[in-house]
Amino acid sequence: MSFAKASDLLRLAEMAAARHMGVALQEIEDEFGVDRRTAQRMTRALEACFPNVETHTDTQRRKFWSLRGEDARLMRARGIRDSELAAIDLAIRRAEREGATNEVRALASLRDRLLASMPGPHARRAEADAEAMLEAHGFASRPGPRVRIDPVLLDTIAEALKAPNVLTIVYAGERDNAPRARVVEPYGLLLGTRRYLVAREPDGDGGLRHFRLDRVHAARLEPQSFCRDPGFSLEAHAARAFGSFHAAREFGEVAWRFAPSAAPTALQFVFHPGQQMTEAPDGALIVRFRASGWLEMAWHLYQWGDKVEVLEPDGLRELVERHRRTDFPALP
Question: What is the CB-side half-sphere exposure of residue 29 using CA atoms within 13 A?
Answer without folding.
Answer: 7
